[in-house]
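Appendix B, example 12.
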Amino acid sequence: MKFKKWIVLALVCGIAIFSLVGCGSNSGGSSGDNAAIDYPTKPIQLIVSYSAGAATDTQARILSKYVQEHLGQTIAVVNMAGAGGQVGWNHFAGVEPDGYTLAVYNLPHIIAQPMVGDTQFNMDTFEPVMNWGWDPVVFAVRADSKYQTLQDVVEDAKARPGAITIGNAGLYVGQHLAQLQFEDVAGIELKTMPFKGAADASAAIQGGHIDINSGNLSDMYRLGSEVRILGVATEERHKFVPDIPTFKEQGYDVVMSTDRGVAALKGTPPEVIQILEDAFTKAANDPEYIAEMEKAGADLLFIPGGDVKAEMEAREPAIRALLDKYGFVKN
Protein backbone atom coordinates (compact mmCIF):
# COMPACT_ATOMS: atom_id res chain seq x y z
CA MET A 1 0.00 0.00 0.00
CA LYS A 2 1.35 3.39 -0.98
CA PHE A 3 1.92 5.79 1.90
CA LYS A 4 -0.44 8.38 0.43
CA LYS A 5 -1.00 10.21 3.68
CA TRP A 6 2.72 10.80 4.06
CA ILE A 7 3.55 12.21 0.63
CA VAL A 8 3.05 15.91 1.36
CA LEU A 9 4.51 15.62 4.86
CA ALA A 10 7.51 13.71 3.54
CA LEU A 11 8.30 16.31 0.93
CA VAL A 12 8.05 19.09 3.48
CA CYS A 13 10.24 17.19 5.95
CA GLY A 14 12.75 16.36 3.24
CA ILE A 15 13.10 20.01 2.25
CA ALA A 16 13.31 21.11 5.86
CA ILE A 17 15.99 18.59 6.76
CA PHE A 18 17.92 19.42 3.62
CA SER A 19 17.85 23.10 4.53
CA LEU A 20 19.00 22.46 8.08
CA VAL A 21 21.88 20.17 7.22
CA GLY A 22 23.00 21.65 3.93
CA CYS A 23 25.22 24.28 5.55
CA GLY A 24 25.97 22.66 8.86
CA SER A 25 27.36 19.24 7.99
CA ASN A 26 29.89 17.91 5.54
CA SER A 27 30.85 14.45 4.34
CA GLY A 28 31.77 12.31 7.30
CA GLY A 29 29.69 14.40 9.69
CA SER A 30 32.67 16.34 11.01
CA SER A 31 31.03 19.67 11.72
CA GLY A 32 28.37 21.04 14.08
CA ASP A 33 26.91 18.78 16.77
CA ASN A 34 28.19 15.68 14.96
CA ALA A 35 31.86 16.68 15.17
CA ALA A 36 32.64 14.54 18.23
CA ILE A 37 31.42 11.35 16.56
CA ASP A 38 33.88 11.19 13.67
CA TYR A 39 31.59 8.93 11.63
CA PRO A 40 32.07 7.35 9.18
CA THR A 41 35.79 6.64 9.16
CA LYS A 42 35.65 3.44 7.06
CA PRO A 43 33.49 1.88 4.33
CA ILE A 44 29.90 0.96 5.08
CA GLN A 45 28.18 -2.29 4.10
CA LEU A 46 24.59 -2.23 2.85
CA ILE A 47 22.91 -5.64 3.02
CA VAL A 48 20.41 -6.40 0.27
CA SER A 49 18.49 -9.54 1.18
CA TYR A 50 17.69 -10.42 -2.42
CA SER A 51 19.55 -11.51 -5.51
CA ALA A 52 21.47 -9.18 -7.76
CA GLY A 53 19.70 -7.67 -10.72
CA ALA A 54 16.17 -7.37 -9.35
CA ALA A 55 14.45 -4.14 -8.37
CA THR A 56 15.63 -3.94 -4.75
CA ASP A 57 19.26 -4.56 -5.67
CA THR A 58 19.22 -2.25 -8.70
CA GLN A 59 17.70 0.65 -6.80
CA ALA A 60 19.91 0.15 -3.72
CA ARG A 61 23.02 0.41 -5.87
CA ILE A 62 21.84 3.64 -7.46
CA LEU A 63 21.01 5.14 -4.07
CA SER A 64 24.33 4.05 -2.57
CA LYS A 65 26.27 5.79 -5.32
CA TYR A 66 24.74 9.14 -4.45
CA VAL A 67 24.76 8.76 -0.66
CA GLN A 68 28.45 7.93 -0.43
CA GLU A 69 29.24 11.32 -1.99
CA HIS A 70 27.76 12.92 1.14
CA LEU A 71 29.26 10.48 3.65
CA GLY A 72 32.77 10.54 2.22
CA GLN A 73 33.00 6.75 2.41
CA THR A 74 32.24 3.91 0.05
CA ILE A 75 28.97 2.02 0.51
CA ALA A 76 29.41 -1.60 -0.56
CA VAL A 77 26.20 -3.45 -1.47
CA VAL A 78 26.30 -7.05 -0.25
CA ASN A 79 23.68 -9.50 -1.55
CA MET A 80 22.51 -12.15 0.92
CA ALA A 81 19.60 -13.83 -0.80
CA GLY A 82 17.49 -16.67 0.53
CA ALA A 83 14.28 -17.58 2.33
CA GLY A 84 12.40 -14.56 1.05
CA GLY A 85 14.95 -12.19 2.55
CA GLN A 86 15.40 -13.91 5.90
CA VAL A 87 19.01 -14.94 5.29
CA GLY A 88 20.18 -11.36 4.97
CA TRP A 89 17.98 -9.93 7.72
CA ASN A 90 18.93 -12.69 10.17
CA HIS A 91 22.57 -11.80 9.54
CA PHE A 92 21.84 -8.11 9.98
CA ALA A 93 20.23 -8.75 13.38
CA GLY A 94 23.62 -9.94 14.72
CA VAL A 95 25.91 -7.13 13.54
CA GLU A 96 27.34 -4.35 15.69
CA PRO A 97 24.96 -1.39 16.02
CA ASP A 98 27.62 1.10 15.00
CA GLY A 99 26.26 2.31 11.66
CA TYR A 100 28.85 0.46 9.57
CA THR A 101 26.40 -2.25 8.51
CA LEU A 102 23.05 -1.07 7.21
CA ALA A 103 20.25 -3.05 5.60
CA VAL A 104 17.69 -2.47 2.94
CA TYR A 105 14.30 -3.27 4.43
CA ASN A 106 11.32 -4.42 2.38
CA LEU A 107 7.79 -3.91 3.62
CA PRO A 108 5.63 -5.79 4.42
CA HIS A 109 8.21 -8.59 4.41
CA ILE A 110 9.98 -7.72 7.67
CA ILE A 111 6.61 -7.38 9.41
CA ALA A 112 5.11 -10.64 8.17
CA GLN A 113 8.01 -13.10 8.32
CA PRO A 114 8.60 -12.96 12.11
CA MET A 115 4.91 -13.73 12.60
CA VAL A 116 5.20 -17.12 10.93
CA GLY A 117 8.72 -18.35 11.65
CA ASP A 118 11.57 -18.25 14.13
CA THR A 119 13.47 -15.37 12.58
CA GLN A 120 16.29 -13.63 14.43
CA PHE A 121 14.72 -10.29 13.53
CA ASN A 122 11.42 -8.51 13.89
CA MET A 123 10.33 -5.08 12.75
CA ASP A 124 11.81 -3.53 15.91
CA THR A 125 15.25 -4.76 14.82
CA PHE A 126 15.26 -2.02 12.21
CA GLU A 127 15.84 1.67 12.88
CA PRO A 128 14.63 3.21 9.60
CA VAL A 129 16.81 5.93 8.08
CA MET A 130 14.50 6.62 5.16
CA ASN A 131 12.07 5.05 2.72
CA TRP A 132 13.05 5.65 -0.89
CA GLY A 133 10.19 4.14 -2.88
CA TRP A 134 7.30 1.80 -3.39
CA ASP A 135 6.72 -0.89 -6.00
CA PRO A 136 3.18 -2.17 -6.59
CA VAL A 137 2.55 -5.88 -6.97
CA VAL A 138 1.36 -7.06 -10.38
CA PHE A 139 0.28 -10.41 -11.73
CA ALA A 140 2.03 -11.11 -15.01
CA VAL A 141 2.03 -14.00 -17.49
CA ARG A 142 4.12 -14.78 -20.54
CA ALA A 143 3.02 -13.04 -23.72
CA ASP A 144 1.88 -16.37 -25.17
CA SER A 145 -0.20 -17.32 -22.09
CA LYS A 146 -3.83 -18.27 -22.49
CA TYR A 147 -4.73 -15.91 -19.65
CA GLN A 148 -5.86 -12.50 -20.91
CA THR A 149 -7.51 -11.23 -17.71
CA LEU A 150 -7.70 -11.98 -14.01
CA GLN A 151 -11.14 -13.43 -14.62
CA ASP A 152 -9.57 -16.02 -16.94
CA VAL A 153 -7.32 -17.07 -14.06
CA VAL A 154 -10.23 -17.29 -11.63
CA GLU A 155 -12.34 -19.42 -13.97
CA ASP A 156 -9.49 -21.83 -14.63
CA ALA A 157 -8.56 -21.99 -10.93
CA LYS A 158 -12.12 -22.91 -10.01
CA ALA A 159 -12.09 -25.65 -12.61
CA ARG A 160 -8.64 -26.91 -11.53
CA PRO A 161 -8.08 -26.05 -7.84
CA GLY A 162 -4.38 -25.85 -6.94
CA ALA A 163 -3.18 -26.53 -10.47
CA ILE A 164 -2.17 -23.02 -11.54
CA THR A 165 1.37 -22.18 -10.44
CA ILE A 166 2.20 -18.70 -9.23
CA GLY A 167 5.71 -17.51 -8.40
CA ASN A 168 6.92 -14.85 -6.01
CA ALA A 169 10.11 -13.54 -4.42
CA GLY A 170 9.67 -15.73 -1.35
CA LEU A 171 7.10 -16.71 1.24
CA TYR A 172 5.38 -14.00 3.30
CA VAL A 173 6.70 -11.14 1.18
CA GLY A 174 4.41 -8.53 -0.39
CA GLN A 175 3.95 -10.56 -3.57
CA HIS A 176 2.90 -13.62 -1.57
CA LEU A 177 0.52 -11.57 0.57
CA ALA A 178 -1.08 -10.16 -2.60
CA GLN A 179 -1.60 -13.72 -3.80
CA LEU A 180 -3.29 -14.60 -0.51
CA GLN A 181 -5.53 -11.54 -0.78
CA PHE A 182 -6.49 -12.57 -4.31
CA GLU A 183 -7.21 -16.18 -3.38
CA ASP A 184 -9.31 -14.97 -0.46
CA VAL A 185 -11.52 -12.52 -2.36
CA ALA A 186 -11.78 -14.72 -5.48
CA GLY A 187 -12.46 -17.93 -3.56
CA ILE A 188 -9.75 -19.91 -5.35
CA GLU A 189 -6.60 -21.88 -4.63
CA LEU A 190 -3.31 -21.39 -6.49
CA LYS A 191 -0.07 -23.34 -6.17
CA THR A 192 2.61 -21.15 -4.60
CA MET A 193 6.12 -21.32 -6.08
CA PRO A 194 8.48 -19.25 -3.90
CA PHE A 195 11.91 -18.25 -5.22
CA LYS A 196 15.06 -16.79 -3.65
CA GLY A 197 14.23 -13.38 -5.02
CA ALA A 198 12.40 -11.39 -7.68
CA ALA A 199 15.13 -11.96 -10.28
CA ASP A 200 14.67 -15.72 -10.00
CA ALA A 201 10.89 -15.43 -10.21
CA SER A 202 11.23 -13.20 -13.28
CA ALA A 203 13.47 -15.78 -14.95
CA ALA A 204 10.90 -18.48 -14.17
CA ILE A 205 8.06 -16.65 -15.89
CA GLN A 206 10.27 -15.88 -18.87
CA GLY A 207 11.23 -19.53 -19.15
CA GLY A 208 7.66 -20.76 -18.85
CA HIS A 209 8.33 -22.62 -15.61
CA ILE A 210 5.38 -20.98 -13.82
CA ASP A 211 1.97 -19.88 -15.06
CA ILE A 212 1.84 -16.51 -13.28
CA ASN A 213 4.36 -14.30 -11.56
CA SER A 214 3.21 -12.22 -8.62
CA GLY A 215 5.99 -9.70 -9.02
CA ASN A 216 7.15 -6.12 -8.75
CA LEU A 217 5.76 -3.70 -11.29
CA SER A 218 9.27 -2.36 -11.93
CA ASP A 219 10.61 -5.83 -12.77
CA MET A 220 7.71 -6.79 -15.04
CA TYR A 221 7.69 -3.34 -16.66
CA ARG A 222 11.32 -3.80 -17.68
CA LEU A 223 10.46 -7.09 -19.43
CA GLY A 224 8.24 -5.19 -21.85
CA SER A 225 6.49 -7.30 -24.49
CA GLU A 226 7.85 -10.56 -23.05
CA VAL A 227 5.05 -10.57 -20.46
CA ARG A 228 1.43 -9.53 -20.16
CA ILE A 229 0.43 -7.77 -16.95
CA LEU A 230 -3.06 -8.83 -15.91
CA GLY A 231 -3.60 -6.43 -13.03
CA VAL A 232 -1.92 -3.88 -10.77
CA ALA A 233 -2.51 -4.02 -7.00
CA THR A 234 -3.03 -0.29 -6.52
CA GLU A 235 -5.98 1.92 -5.63
CA GLU A 236 -5.75 3.70 -8.99
CA ARG A 237 -4.11 2.91 -12.31
CA HIS A 238 -0.36 3.37 -12.32
CA LYS A 239 1.41 5.94 -14.48
CA PHE A 240 3.91 3.37 -15.76
CA VAL A 241 1.14 1.16 -17.21
CA PRO A 242 -1.95 3.36 -17.53
CA ASP A 243 -3.67 0.89 -19.85
CA ILE A 244 -3.55 -1.95 -17.30
CA PRO A 245 -6.57 -2.12 -14.97
CA THR A 246 -6.20 -2.48 -11.23
CA PHE A 247 -7.33 -5.59 -9.37
CA LYS A 248 -10.14 -3.49 -7.90
CA GLU A 249 -11.39 -2.46 -11.34
CA GLN A 250 -11.69 -6.14 -12.16
CA GLY A 251 -13.67 -6.84 -9.02
CA TYR A 252 -10.93 -8.06 -6.67
CA ASP A 253 -9.98 -5.98 -3.63
CA VAL A 254 -6.22 -6.53 -3.72
CA VAL A 255 -3.87 -3.66 -2.80
CA MET A 256 -0.24 -4.46 -2.04
CA SER A 257 3.24 -3.16 -2.75
CA THR A 258 6.85 -3.66 -1.81
CA ASP A 259 8.13 -0.56 -0.06
CA ARG A 260 11.88 -0.11 0.21
CA GLY A 261 14.22 1.84 2.42
CA VAL A 262 17.39 1.76 4.46
CA ALA A 263 17.72 1.02 8.16
CA ALA A 264 20.40 0.89 10.80
CA LEU A 265 20.30 -1.71 13.56
CA LYS A 266 18.36 -0.92 16.69
CA GLY A 267 20.76 0.50 19.29
CA THR A 268 22.80 2.52 16.80
CA PRO A 269 23.77 5.86 18.41
CA PRO A 270 21.26 8.63 17.62
CA GLU A 271 24.09 10.88 16.42
CA VAL A 272 25.04 8.29 13.81
CA ILE A 273 21.42 7.91 12.73
CA GLN A 274 21.25 11.67 12.27
CA ILE A 275 24.36 11.74 10.07
CA LEU A 276 22.88 8.95 7.95
CA GLU A 277 19.51 10.68 7.69
CA ASP A 278 21.21 13.88 6.59
CA ALA A 279 23.19 12.10 3.88
CA PHE A 280 20.28 10.05 2.57
CA THR A 281 18.02 13.10 2.52
CA LYS A 282 20.55 15.01 0.43
CA ALA A 283 20.79 12.12 -2.00
CA ALA A 284 17.00 11.85 -2.23
CA ASN A 285 16.82 15.51 -3.29
CA ASP A 286 19.51 15.19 -5.95
CA PRO A 287 17.96 15.71 -9.43
CA GLU A 288 20.46 13.32 -11.02
CA TYR A 289 19.57 10.60 -8.51
CA ILE A 290 15.86 11.12 -9.16
CA ALA A 291 16.37 10.93 -12.92
CA GLU A 292 18.48 7.77 -12.70
CA MET A 293 16.00 6.02 -10.42
CA GLU A 294 13.09 6.89 -12.67
CA LYS A 295 15.03 5.57 -15.68
CA ALA A 296 15.44 2.28 -13.77
CA GLY A 297 11.67 2.07 -13.32
CA ALA A 298 11.68 3.06 -9.65
CA ASP A 299 8.61 4.78 -8.26
CA LEU A 300 10.11 7.11 -5.68
CA LEU A 301 8.56 7.89 -2.33
CA PHE A 302 10.80 9.56 0.23
CA ILE A 303 9.59 9.09 3.82
CA PRO A 304 11.59 10.14 6.91
CA GLY A 305 12.69 7.30 9.16
CA GLY A 306 10.41 8.13 12.08
CA ASP A 307 7.32 8.08 9.90
CA VAL A 308 8.32 4.72 8.43
CA LYS A 309 8.33 3.22 11.92
CA ALA A 310 4.83 4.52 12.55
CA GLU A 311 3.67 3.03 9.23
CA MET A 312 5.10 -0.37 10.16
CA GLU A 313 3.16 -0.36 13.40
CA ALA A 314 -0.03 0.69 11.64
CA ARG A 315 0.19 -2.14 9.11
CA GLU A 316 0.88 -4.92 11.59
CA PRO A 317 -2.74 -5.79 12.59
CA ALA A 318 -4.01 -6.25 9.01
CA ILE A 319 -1.02 -8.36 8.02
CA ARG A 320 -1.43 -10.54 11.09
CA ALA A 321 -5.15 -11.01 10.38
CA LEU A 322 -4.49 -12.11 6.78
CA LEU A 323 -1.79 -14.60 7.75
CA ASP A 324 -3.84 -15.90 10.66
CA LYS A 325 -6.79 -16.54 8.36
CA TYR A 326 -4.62 -18.99 6.44
CA GLY A 327 -3.20 -20.56 9.60
CA PHE A 328 0.32 -19.26 9.08
CA VAL A 329 0.78 -17.31 12.33
CA LYS A 330 2.90 -19.24 14.79
CA ASN A 331 1.50 -19.98 18.22
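The longest helix spans residues 305-325. Residues 1-35 have pLDDT under 50 and may be disordered.
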